[in-house]
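Forum > Structural Biology > Help requests

Title: Can anyone predict the 3D structure of Anhydro-N-acetylmuramic acid kinase?

Hi all, first post here. I have the sequence for Anhydro-N-acetylmuramic acid kinase but no way to get a structure on my laptop. I'd be grateful if someone could post the structure tokens.
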Amino acid sequence: MIVVSVASGTSVDALDVGVVDLSVRDDAGTVEVEVLASTTEPWPHDLRDRLLALLPPATTTAAEVCALDTAVGQAVGAVAAEAAARAGGADLVVSPGQTVHHEIDGDRCLGTLQIGQPAWVAEATGLPVVSDLRTRDVAAGGHGAPLAGILDSLWLAGGAGQRVALNLGGIANVSVVQPDGTSLAWDTGPANCLLDVAASRASGGAHGHDVDGAMAARGRVLPELLDRLLAHPHFALTPPVSTGRETFSAAYLDNLVGPDPAWDDVAATLVELTARTVADALAPYDVTEVVASGGGTRNPSLMAALARHLPAPVRTSDDLGLPVDGKEAVLWALLGFLTWYGVPVTTDPASGRPPRVLGRISPGADPLVLPPPLTPPTRLRVRAAAHDLPTTEVRSA
Ligand SMILES: Nc1ncnc2c1ncn2[C@@H]1O[C@H](COP(=O)(O)OP(=O)(O)O)[C@@H](O)[C@H]1O
Ligand SMILES: [Mg+2]
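Reply #1:
Sure, ran it for you. Structure tokens for Anhydro-N-acetylmuramic acid kinase below:
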């Protein structure tokens, strides 16, 4: 099955597009994935700024939410249609939408909202669309995030010890995977979201992030600020938990650093915060290796801080066949595939809560005909693409 996925994470930096070939050898219970294409497309027009403007403490209107739900759906539809055409056709589109609010009360998730109306995607592509992949897990008592553990438990199972997948997006999440594939995944706290704010403030809006970690490399860690950041109640919660940009917001950072701070030092402190909180989160485990992905792997200051603090070697997901910028695209493609084949999943395998089939399916041009449900797979194998490694095109806005 050829699946096109189009998604944007908490960084709201770009649309990650994947074209992924998924198949199952039912006898072996193994999903095989091959990344046919993995690209990053800029948000059109002023969409990124308008999406970020929804964050608290701002207020918004139903009219603006409607306009953005439409605009995100249209943007995803256009990108998905182009990707499907370039692939010579596809069977399914996965569009998880843009998270605009994730309502957390301590260790519970009360609700989560992703926008990007899938009708536009179905209309643009003529293909069935899987969307809304978080809310069913929330309704069943989970957090609906992070969902990466569902991929990581299939992908990193069978190792010698406890292997960890670490995704460095706006928020950092980890999956601790046991050799038998059981896993625990949760959001450790901010990775890039506060750092992006610092970079933007320091450059008067010219830079959306600390390019190549230059600010953090110049700066010095401010111990008092680090202590105040570490005092956030999220870091004391017992996993699995999730968090978001509404918690670690620009207003939160502005309030902590005060007016006109030394931004390089703030950046160095935020990098230290991410490395410290990831290391603290993993301290109870006997970790044999950490496999990192996400945009934060492009920040050498952050990767150096992680290498200093983590008790196990850090490698990137590229080494295991999933591109650092394309791993999330594979995750969404896999989740859409599992939904299509009626495979129930859970964000918290240890809870004893029965897994659920996630998502919502919108018909494409044809009436919906679903295949018979598949036996839940137990392993995932990444097949190297016929044309060597997948191409990663990054076009800047
Ligand atoms: N060259 C780079 N130097 C520093 N940071 C980078 C670089 N490239 C990407 N990033 C960081 O990665 C973030 C995007 O990562 P991504 O994995 O897409 O996160 P999300 O899933 O939240 O969208 C950017 O906002 C930025 O902070
Ligand atoms: Mg992103």
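The two ends are 31 Å apart (CA to CA). Confidence is low (pLDDT under 50) at residues 387-397.
Shout if anything looks off.
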